[in-house]
Amino acid sequence: MNRDVFITSLPDLASKLTLSEEEKDFDESDGTRLPIKIPSSFFDLIDPDDPFDPIRRQVVPTVFEHVEVEGETLDPLAEKRHAATSRLIHRYSGRAAFLATDRCFIHCRYCFRRRFTGTFQGPATKEEIEQAARYVEGHPSITELLFTGGDLFTLSDARLEAMIEAFRSRRPDLIIRLCTRAPAAEPRRITPALISMIKTFDTAPFFLMTQFNHGRELTKEALRATALFIDNGIPAMNQTVLLKRVNDDADTLERLCNALLANRIKPYYLFQGDLVSGTAHLRVSIEDGMKLEAELRRRLSGLAMPLYALDLPEGGGKIPLVSSYLEKQKDGALIFRTPYGEHRSYPAD
Ligand SMILES: *Cc1c(COP(=O)(O)O)cnc(C)c1O
Ligand code: SF4
Asked: For 240-296, what is each residue's pLDDT tens digit?
Protein backbone atom coordinates (compact mmCIF):
# COMPACT_ATOMS: atom_id res chain seq x y z
CA MET A 1 0.00 0.00 0.00
CA ASN A 2 1.05 3.53 -0.70
CA ARG A 3 1.68 4.72 2.89
CA ASP A 4 2.70 8.11 4.13
CA VAL A 5 6.23 9.10 5.02
CA PHE A 6 6.49 10.76 8.41
CA ILE A 7 8.37 13.84 9.51
CA THR A 8 9.84 12.92 12.89
CA SER A 9 12.50 15.43 13.87
CA LEU A 10 13.26 19.13 14.01
CA PRO A 11 16.04 18.97 11.38
CA ASP A 12 13.63 17.11 9.15
CA LEU A 13 11.06 19.89 9.64
CA ALA A 14 13.64 22.63 9.16
CA SER A 15 14.57 21.19 5.78
CA LYS A 16 10.99 21.64 4.61
CA LEU A 17 9.78 24.73 6.44
CA THR A 18 11.32 28.03 7.53
CA LEU A 19 11.04 27.62 11.28
CA SER A 20 10.36 30.54 13.60
CA GLU A 21 12.59 31.13 16.64
CA GLU A 22 9.89 29.62 18.89
CA GLU A 23 9.75 26.52 16.76
CA LYS A 24 13.54 26.17 16.49
CA ASP A 25 13.91 26.37 20.27
CA PHE A 26 11.71 23.37 20.98
CA ASP A 27 13.87 20.85 22.82
CA GLU A 28 13.14 17.48 21.31
CA SER A 29 15.95 15.78 23.21
CA ASP A 30 13.87 15.95 26.40
CA GLY A 31 12.30 12.50 26.55
CA THR A 32 9.30 13.67 28.57
CA ARG A 33 7.96 15.59 25.57
CA LEU A 34 5.72 14.27 22.86
CA PRO A 35 8.00 13.54 19.89
CA ILE A 36 7.38 15.16 16.51
CA LYS A 37 5.34 13.05 14.13
CA ILE A 38 3.62 14.46 11.06
CA PRO A 39 2.38 12.39 8.12
CA SER A 40 3.56 13.95 4.87
CA SER A 41 0.05 14.26 3.46
CA PHE A 42 -1.02 16.23 6.55
CA PHE A 43 2.16 18.31 6.37
CA ASP A 44 1.33 19.18 2.76
CA LEU A 45 -1.80 20.98 3.97
CA ILE A 46 0.39 23.58 5.70
CA ASP A 47 0.69 26.96 4.02
CA PRO A 48 4.45 27.56 4.47
CA ASP A 49 4.04 31.31 4.13
CA ASP A 50 1.68 31.62 7.08
CA PRO A 51 3.49 31.37 10.44
CA PHE A 52 0.11 30.96 12.18
CA ASP A 53 -1.22 28.37 9.79
CA PRO A 54 -3.90 26.36 11.67
CA ILE A 55 -2.58 23.02 10.41
CA ARG A 56 0.99 23.95 11.37
CA ARG A 57 0.02 24.94 14.92
CA GLN A 58 -1.51 21.51 15.54
CA VAL A 59 1.65 19.56 14.72
CA VAL A 60 4.75 21.77 14.78
CA PRO A 61 5.97 22.14 18.39
CA THR A 62 7.21 25.38 19.90
CA VAL A 63 9.25 26.39 22.91
CA PHE A 64 5.97 27.21 24.66
CA GLU A 65 5.59 23.49 25.33
CA HIS A 66 8.40 23.87 27.86
CA VAL A 67 6.17 26.08 29.97
CA GLU A 68 4.07 24.39 32.60
CA VAL A 69 1.46 26.70 34.13
CA GLU A 70 -0.17 26.17 37.49
CA GLY A 71 -2.81 23.48 37.46
CA GLU A 72 -1.37 21.61 34.51
CA THR A 73 -0.38 17.95 34.87
CA LEU A 74 0.52 15.07 32.59
CA ASP A 75 -2.68 13.23 33.48
CA PRO A 76 -5.30 15.98 33.84
CA LEU A 77 -8.24 13.60 33.85
CA ALA A 78 -6.73 11.30 36.49
CA GLU A 79 -7.13 8.42 34.09
CA LYS A 80 -4.57 6.39 35.98
CA ARG A 81 -6.80 6.48 39.04
CA HIS A 82 -9.79 5.27 37.01
CA ALA A 83 -7.94 2.39 35.39
CA ALA A 84 -9.97 -0.77 35.92
CA THR A 85 -7.28 -2.88 34.24
CA SER A 86 -3.94 -1.78 32.84
CA ARG A 87 -5.59 -0.55 29.61
CA LEU A 88 -9.22 0.02 30.54
CA ILE A 89 -10.50 3.32 31.93
CA HIS A 90 -13.86 2.97 33.63
CA ARG A 91 -14.98 6.42 34.67
CA TYR A 92 -18.67 6.37 33.73
CA SER A 93 -20.88 3.44 34.74
CA GLY A 94 -22.30 2.83 31.28
CA ARG A 95 -19.17 3.07 29.20
CA ALA A 96 -15.46 2.39 29.30
CA ALA A 97 -12.44 3.31 27.21
CA PHE A 98 -9.88 0.76 26.08
CA LEU A 99 -6.39 2.02 25.23
CA ALA A 100 -5.73 -0.19 22.22
CA THR A 101 -2.24 1.16 21.61
CA ASP A 102 -0.09 4.17 22.42
CA ARG A 103 0.82 4.69 18.77
CA CYS A 104 -0.62 7.43 16.59
CA PHE A 105 -0.26 8.42 12.96
CA ILE A 106 0.23 11.98 14.07
CA HIS A 107 1.36 13.70 17.23
CA CYS A 108 -0.96 16.56 18.11
CA ARG A 109 0.74 19.20 20.21
CA TYR A 110 -2.32 19.56 22.48
CA CYS A 111 -2.78 15.83 23.12
CA PHE A 112 -4.30 15.34 26.57
CA ARG A 113 -3.15 11.75 26.78
CA ARG A 114 0.50 12.55 26.31
CA ARG A 115 1.41 10.68 29.49
CA PHE A 116 0.68 7.63 27.32
CA THR A 117 0.75 8.60 23.63
CA GLY A 118 3.96 7.77 21.83
CA THR A 119 5.63 6.32 24.93
CA PHE A 120 6.58 3.11 23.15
CA GLN A 121 4.47 0.84 25.32
CA GLY A 122 3.01 -0.48 22.12
CA PRO A 123 -0.28 -2.19 21.43
CA ALA A 124 -2.17 -3.91 24.25
CA THR A 125 -0.86 -7.42 24.72
CA LYS A 126 -3.05 -10.48 24.36
CA GLU A 127 -3.16 -10.76 28.16
CA GLU A 128 -4.15 -7.06 28.55
CA ILE A 129 -6.92 -7.50 25.99
CA GLU A 130 -8.21 -10.63 27.76
CA GLN A 131 -8.09 -8.89 31.12
CA ALA A 132 -10.12 -5.92 29.86
CA ALA A 133 -12.58 -8.15 27.98
CA ARG A 134 -13.18 -10.22 31.11
CA TYR A 135 -13.79 -7.02 33.08
CA VAL A 136 -16.36 -5.83 30.53
CA GLU A 137 -17.98 -9.28 30.61
CA GLY A 138 -18.27 -9.03 34.38
CA HIS A 139 -19.81 -5.55 34.21
CA PRO A 140 -22.99 -5.79 32.14
CA SER A 141 -23.76 -2.16 33.05
CA ILE A 142 -21.08 -1.23 30.50
CA THR A 143 -22.98 -0.97 27.23
CA GLU A 144 -20.49 1.05 25.20
CA LEU A 145 -16.80 0.52 24.71
CA LEU A 146 -14.47 3.12 23.22
CA PHE A 147 -11.45 1.80 21.37
CA THR A 148 -9.02 4.62 21.75
CA GLY A 149 -5.34 5.23 22.42
CA GLY A 150 -3.30 6.26 20.57
CA ASP A 151 -4.99 5.28 17.39
CA LEU A 152 -6.47 1.83 17.00
CA PHE A 153 -5.96 1.86 13.24
CA THR A 154 -2.18 1.80 13.66
CA LEU A 155 -2.84 -1.89 14.41
CA SER A 156 -2.93 -4.35 11.54
CA ASP A 157 -6.30 -5.71 10.41
CA ALA A 158 -5.42 -9.08 11.99
CA ARG A 159 -4.58 -7.56 15.38
CA LEU A 160 -7.69 -5.41 15.33
CA GLU A 161 -9.82 -8.39 14.45
CA ALA A 162 -8.46 -10.34 17.43
CA MET A 163 -9.14 -7.37 19.69
CA ILE A 164 -12.74 -6.87 18.55
CA GLU A 165 -13.29 -10.63 18.75
CA ALA A 166 -12.09 -10.73 22.38
CA PHE A 167 -14.76 -8.23 23.45
CA ARG A 168 -17.61 -9.08 21.12
CA SER A 169 -17.37 -12.86 21.74
CA ARG A 170 -18.09 -12.19 25.41
CA ARG A 171 -20.47 -9.30 24.87
CA PRO A 172 -22.20 -9.53 21.48
CA ASP A 173 -24.40 -6.59 22.54
CA LEU A 174 -21.51 -4.20 23.18
CA ILE A 175 -21.64 -0.97 21.18
CA ILE A 176 -18.14 -0.11 20.02
CA ARG A 177 -16.82 3.36 19.23
CA LEU A 178 -13.82 3.50 16.94
CA CYS A 179 -12.00 6.67 18.05
CA THR A 180 -9.42 7.65 15.47
CA ARG A 181 -7.59 10.45 13.76
CA ALA A 182 -6.78 8.22 10.79
CA PRO A 183 -9.27 9.80 8.34
CA ALA A 184 -7.50 13.15 8.85
CA ALA A 185 -3.96 11.88 9.40
CA GLU A 186 -3.62 8.65 7.42
CA PRO A 187 -6.73 8.18 5.28
CA ARG A 188 -5.10 5.52 3.11
CA ARG A 189 -5.13 3.18 6.11
CA ILE A 190 -8.91 2.96 5.71
CA THR A 191 -9.43 0.23 3.14
CA PRO A 192 -12.39 -1.82 1.95
CA ALA A 193 -10.70 -4.87 3.52
CA LEU A 194 -10.62 -3.17 6.92
CA ILE A 195 -14.29 -2.24 6.68
CA SER A 196 -15.27 -5.77 5.59
CA MET A 197 -13.49 -7.21 8.60
CA ILE A 198 -15.28 -4.83 10.98
CA LYS A 199 -18.60 -5.61 9.33
CA THR A 200 -18.27 -9.30 10.18
CA PHE A 201 -18.94 -8.30 13.81
CA ASP A 202 -22.51 -7.31 13.12
CA THR A 203 -24.25 -8.18 16.40
CA ALA A 204 -24.21 -4.57 17.64
CA PRO A 205 -23.44 -1.16 16.17
CA PHE A 206 -20.08 0.47 15.63
CA PHE A 207 -19.66 4.23 15.58
CA LEU A 208 -16.77 6.02 13.94
CA MET A 209 -15.49 8.89 16.12
CA THR A 210 -13.32 11.17 14.02
CA GLN A 211 -11.25 14.18 15.01
CA PHE A 212 -11.20 17.04 12.53
CA ASN A 213 -10.24 20.44 13.91
CA HIS A 214 -10.24 22.59 10.80
CA GLY A 215 -12.15 22.51 7.52
CA ARG A 216 -8.92 22.18 5.57
CA GLU A 217 -8.44 18.69 7.02
CA LEU A 218 -11.52 17.50 5.15
CA THR A 219 -9.59 16.51 2.06
CA LYS A 220 -10.90 14.29 -0.70
CA GLU A 221 -8.97 11.35 0.74
CA ALA A 222 -10.24 12.02 4.26
CA LEU A 223 -13.81 12.13 3.03
CA ARG A 224 -13.33 8.96 1.00
CA ALA A 225 -12.15 7.26 4.22
CA THR A 226 -15.13 8.41 6.30
CA ALA A 227 -17.56 7.60 3.49
CA LEU A 228 -16.32 4.01 3.49
CA PHE A 229 -17.53 3.63 7.06
CA ILE A 230 -20.78 5.49 6.56
CA ASP A 231 -21.70 3.68 3.33
CA ASN A 232 -21.25 0.44 5.23
CA GLY A 233 -23.62 1.32 8.03
CA ILE A 234 -21.17 2.82 10.53
CA PRO A 235 -22.29 6.36 11.47
CA ALA A 236 -19.61 9.01 11.92
CA MET A 237 -19.39 11.57 14.73
CA ASN A 238 -16.71 14.20 15.08
CA GLN A 239 -14.87 15.52 18.11
CA THR A 240 -13.08 18.83 17.69
CA VAL A 241 -10.63 20.32 20.16
CA LEU A 242 -11.01 24.08 20.57
CA LEU A 243 -7.53 25.46 19.89
CA LYS A 244 -6.19 28.98 20.05
CA ARG A 245 -5.37 30.40 16.61
CA VAL A 246 -6.39 27.14 15.00
CA ASN A 247 -10.16 27.17 15.15
CA ASP A 248 -11.16 29.69 17.85
CA ASP A 249 -13.31 31.89 15.67
CA ALA A 250 -16.93 31.50 14.73
CA ASP A 251 -16.36 31.55 10.95
CA THR A 252 -13.82 28.71 11.07
CA LEU A 253 -15.98 26.55 13.33
CA GLU A 254 -19.13 27.30 11.36
CA ARG A 255 -17.43 26.23 8.13
CA LEU A 256 -15.99 23.11 9.74
CA CYS A 257 -19.30 22.00 11.27
CA ASN A 258 -21.30 22.63 8.11
CA ALA A 259 -18.73 20.81 5.98
CA LEU A 260 -18.78 17.86 8.38
CA LEU A 261 -22.55 17.68 8.24
CA ALA A 262 -22.59 17.96 4.45
CA ASN A 263 -20.41 14.86 4.46
CA ARG A 264 -22.67 12.95 6.86
CA ILE A 265 -20.38 13.42 9.86
CA LYS A 266 -22.27 14.68 12.90
CA PRO A 267 -20.40 17.31 14.95
CA TYR A 268 -20.56 15.69 18.41
CA TYR A 269 -18.22 17.44 20.86
CA LEU A 270 -16.25 20.67 20.81
CA PHE A 271 -13.77 20.12 23.62
CA GLN A 272 -12.34 22.74 25.88
CA GLY A 273 -8.57 22.12 26.13
CA ASP A 274 -7.56 19.97 29.07
CA LEU A 275 -5.00 21.16 31.61
CA VAL A 276 -2.21 19.07 30.19
CA SER A 277 1.38 20.18 30.74
CA GLY A 278 2.82 22.52 28.14
CA THR A 279 -0.39 23.35 26.28
CA ALA A 280 -1.44 26.70 27.78
CA HIS A 281 -0.54 28.53 24.56
CA LEU A 282 -3.10 26.44 22.68
CA ARG A 283 -5.95 26.82 25.14
CA VAL A 284 -8.84 29.25 24.76
CA SER A 285 -10.39 30.76 27.90
CA ILE A 286 -13.75 29.29 28.85
CA GLU A 287 -15.24 32.78 28.70
CA ASP A 288 -14.21 33.13 25.03
CA GLY A 289 -15.29 29.54 24.36
CA MET A 290 -18.77 30.23 25.73
CA LYS A 291 -19.09 33.30 23.52
CA LEU A 292 -18.17 31.19 20.52
CA GLU A 293 -20.67 28.55 21.59
CA ALA A 294 -23.47 31.12 21.78
CA GLU A 295 -22.56 32.52 18.38
CA LEU A 296 -22.48 29.05 16.82
CA ARG A 297 -25.87 28.29 18.32
CA ARG A 298 -27.26 31.29 16.44
CA ARG A 299 -25.61 30.27 13.19
CA LEU A 300 -25.80 26.47 13.05
CA SER A 301 -28.65 24.01 12.76
CA GLY A 302 -29.21 21.61 15.62
CA LEU A 303 -27.66 18.84 13.55
CA ALA A 304 -24.54 20.86 12.79
CA MET A 305 -24.10 22.08 16.37
CA PRO A 306 -21.56 20.27 18.56
CA LEU A 307 -21.79 20.23 22.34
CA TYR A 308 -19.11 22.42 23.89
CA ALA A 309 -17.77 20.36 26.78
CA LEU A 310 -15.12 20.28 29.44
CA ASP A 311 -13.60 17.14 30.87
CA LEU A 312 -13.24 18.28 34.47
CA PRO A 313 -9.84 17.99 36.14
CA GLU A 314 -9.09 15.06 38.43
CA GLY A 315 -11.51 12.77 36.70
CA GLY A 316 -14.61 14.81 37.45
CA GLY A 317 -16.11 13.78 34.12
CA LYS A 318 -17.47 15.69 31.16
CA ILE A 319 -19.82 18.62 31.60
CA PRO A 320 -21.57 20.76 28.97
CA LEU A 321 -20.45 24.38 28.75
CA VAL A 322 -23.61 26.15 27.77
CA SER A 323 -24.69 29.43 29.25
CA SER A 324 -28.07 29.32 30.92
CA TYR A 325 -30.92 30.79 28.95
CA LEU A 326 -33.03 30.84 32.11
CA GLU A 327 -32.61 34.29 33.58
CA LYS A 328 -35.04 34.41 36.48
CA GLN A 329 -38.29 33.28 38.00
CA LYS A 330 -40.99 35.89 38.48
CA ASP A 331 -44.65 35.61 39.58
CA GLY A 332 -44.84 31.90 38.81
CA ALA A 333 -43.16 32.31 35.43
CA LEU A 334 -39.69 31.44 34.18
CA ILE A 335 -38.08 34.19 32.17
CA PHE A 336 -35.79 33.04 29.37
CA ARG A 337 -33.39 34.93 27.16
CA THR A 338 -33.63 33.94 23.51
CA PRO A 339 -30.40 33.26 21.60
CA TYR A 340 -31.00 36.65 19.95
CA GLY A 341 -31.22 38.58 23.23
CA GLU A 342 -35.01 38.93 23.56
CA HIS A 343 -37.09 37.59 26.43
CA ARG A 344 -39.89 35.04 26.72
CA SER A 345 -41.69 33.59 29.70
CA TYR A 346 -42.96 30.08 30.38
CA PRO A 347 -45.06 28.89 33.36
CA ALA A 348 -42.93 27.57 36.25
CA ASP A 349 -45.30 24.66 36.88
C1 LIG B 1 -15.16 10.82 27.10
C2 LIG B 1 -15.11 9.51 27.70
C3 LIG B 1 -16.14 8.58 27.48
C4 LIG B 1 -17.31 8.86 26.57
O5 LIG B 1 -18.11 9.90 27.02
P6 LIG B 1 -19.40 10.35 26.18
O7 LIG B 1 -19.86 11.59 26.87
O8 LIG B 1 -20.38 9.23 26.28
O9 LIG B 1 -18.97 10.58 24.77
C10 LIG B 1 -16.04 7.37 28.11
N11 LIG B 1 -15.01 7.06 28.91
C12 LIG B 1 -14.02 7.93 29.16
C13 LIG B 1 -12.93 7.54 30.08
C14 LIG B 1 -14.03 9.18 28.56
O15 LIG B 1 -13.03 10.03 28.78
S1 SF4 C 1 -4.17 11.37 17.49
FE2 SF4 C 1 -5.22 11.61 19.47
S3 SF4 C 1 -4.04 10.38 20.96
FE4 SF4 C 1 -2.74 10.72 19.13
S5 SF4 C 1 -1.52 12.53 19.59
FE6 SF4 C 1 -3.35 13.23 18.47
S7 SF4 C 1 -4.84 13.74 20.08
FE8 SF4 C 1 -3.23 12.46 21.05
From this structure: 999 999 999 999 999 999 999 999 999 999 999 999 999 999 999 999 999 999 999
- Which ligand minimizes its atom distance to the CA of 39? 2
Angle at CA of residue 71, ends 69 and 75, nearest 5°: 105
Which residues are part of the catalytic machinery? 91-92, 95, 104, 108, 111, 113, 274, 311, 318
Q: Are 40 and 6 in contact (CB under 8 A)?
A: yes
Nearest to 64 by CA among 243, 250, 289: 243
SS3 for 278?
coil
For each of the domains in the chain, give its residue range(s) and CATH number, in order of start. 69-320 (3.20.20.70)
Report the SS3 class of residue 27. Answer: coil
Residues contacting residue 127 through CB under 8 Å, at least 6 positions apart: none
Note if the pTM is more than 0.90. Answer: yes
Q: Cα 198 from chain centroid?
A: 21
Bridge partners, residue 21, by sequence: none
Q: Which helix (H) or strand (E) holds 335?
A: strand 333-337
Cα(273) to ligand 1 centroid in Å equals 15
